[in-house]
């Protein structure tokens, strides 16, 4: 990698993949035209009207977590062109995102407008936890929300390092549905009524929608965490495999019949090998993907 490219935005890893896949010119144009180190006025206006965003964090070992945050319009505060802040409301008590931030301050925020402009905004930066009292002493203009479930337990302050567009090409257009009224105890999809901010009612929070609690009660304990196994391939091998796959697809698109035949035979051999030894140790004949 050239010294000039090393000074570009982004990671060394993404620069290497750009070289391997021949996207350097496109990437450099995007860096030059779209990636800022601050929020410009239009970005600030966009942030101020959001009601939700997606948050990515990782612990000190790089184990990732993604989550969703929502609140009334303006809950994600623009403090200045280099700083955002949002309140952490009452949740399940696990504190996965906050715990990760304590170990590793790097965060990624993705905001998507599904309803009006059908566009997105990425913000990457460093985060720190700030108590509600301290945050309000420094920023007395912050609103006080009267809803009990929306009273901050703590604030997350994010120093902006990168801000850039997420293009509209694959963003679906959605429409907001009117809030349905229903009994206070009704569950998801049964007339949710007003947003159940701060509730501890299991049914109103979604109950055991995915059946995890039922599995635990049946003795099928969910797997908590994942240790690296000795036979796990390193991440670089997975990336190399992806690059090889892309190159094979490109070769197939050129109409090379010999390559197509070899790839089909390889896929069939892998499928057969996978079915020869099942979890119960018995051999099972391969019968095709569509039987």
TrEMBL record:
Family annotation (Pfam families): PNPOx_N
Domain of life: Bacteria
Record's protein name: Pyridoxamine 5'-phosphate oxidase family protein
InterPro entries documented for this protein: Pyridox_Oxase_N (IPR011576), Split_barrel_FMN-bd (IPR012349)
PANTHER family reported in the protein's UniProt record: FAD-BINDING, PUTATIVE (AFU_ORTHOLOGUE AFUA_6G07600)-RELATED
UniProt domain Pyridoxamine 5'-phosphate oxidase N-terminal: residue ranges: 40-134
């Amino acid at each position: 990698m050239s010294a000039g490219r090393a000074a570009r935005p982004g990671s060394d890893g993404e620069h290497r993949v750009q070289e391997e896949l021949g996207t350097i010119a496109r990437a450099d144009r995007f860096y030059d035209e779209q990636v800022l180190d601050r929020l410009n006025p239009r970005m600030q206006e966009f942030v101020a009207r959001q009601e939700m965003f997606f948050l990515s964090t990782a612990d000190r070992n790089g184990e990732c977590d993604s989550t969703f945050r929502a609140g009334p319009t303006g809950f994600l505060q623009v403090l200045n062109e280099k700083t955002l802040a949002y309140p952490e409301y009452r949740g399940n008590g696990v504190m996965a995102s906050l715990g990760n931030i304590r170990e590793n301050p790097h965060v990624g925020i993705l905001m998507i407008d599904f309803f009006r402009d059908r566009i997105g905004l990425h913000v990457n930066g460093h985060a720190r936890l700030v108590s509600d009292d301290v945050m309000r002493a420094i920023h007395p203009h912050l609103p006080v929300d009267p809803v009990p479930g929306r009273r901050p337990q703590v604030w997350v302050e994010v120093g902006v390092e990168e801000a850039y567009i997420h293009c509209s090409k694959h963003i679906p257009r959605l429409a907001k549905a009117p809030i349905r009224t229903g009994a206070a105890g009704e569950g998801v999809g049964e007339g949710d009524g007003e947003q159940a901010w701060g509730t501890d009612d299991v049914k109103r929070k979604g109950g055991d929608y995915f059946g995890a609690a039922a599995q635990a009660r049946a003795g099928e304990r969910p797997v908590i965490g994942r240790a690296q196994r000795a036979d796990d391939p390193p991440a670089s091998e997975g990336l190399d495999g992806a690059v090889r796959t892309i190159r094979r697809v490109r070769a197939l698109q050129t109409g090379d019949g010999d390559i197509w035949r070899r790839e089909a035979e390889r896929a069939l051999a892998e499928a057969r090998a996978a079915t020869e030894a099942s979890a119960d140790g018995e051999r099972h004949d391969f019968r095709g993907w569509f039987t």
